[in-house]
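Hi V.,

You were right to ask for the full record rather than a summary. Here it is.
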Amino acid sequence: MTLVTTLLALGLVAGPAEAKKKKDGMGVRLKVSSDLLAVESSKQEYDGSDVDGSDARTNTISLFEHGQRFEATYFLGDGVEVGGMLGFTQARGTVGDTEDPPDRHFALALTGAYNMGLGGGVRGFVQPIAGIDQTTVDVGEDFETQVRFLMAGADAGVRIKLNKKVTFDIAGEGLIGNGKASAGGESDDKLKLKYNKVGARIGLSVRI
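Predicted structure:
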């Protein structure tokens, strides 16, 4: 929550600082967001056929604890933004007196947005997403396992103005992914991983 607090403080400072006003529509947007509702499903295919029993589905309801990511976009004008998304987690510890090797998750995507005024301090937006999502278990070990997805999708939602620079964003999201897995540095090209996700996200964005 530290990043959310920082963005709020930045928005409160940036809001009144309009004496040196930039041209409308220009600047940078910083945003943090997370899943509010997510329905995720996955399956495996081997040599073009579904693997029996590999289908999995998860329904998640969360408040600022699932699927967090940071975004930074630059305004090109006329409601158009371009930029990127980043998510990163690394966990390590011990089991008894034995060190547990680190596990790591990394997501990086290109994004953009088109914004349109709806009136009353509300703007609609659509946002394409394309990138990679990678999970590595037991990083650096001989038995390291890695799963990597190429992801694509989009968000569509509204930005509700909280002050001159801060908005509360809520959007629907759909993503699909195709992935591969490796264990101990070896992979099987016949094994394909499929992933899809639909849900709703909430976030806080600040223009600077």
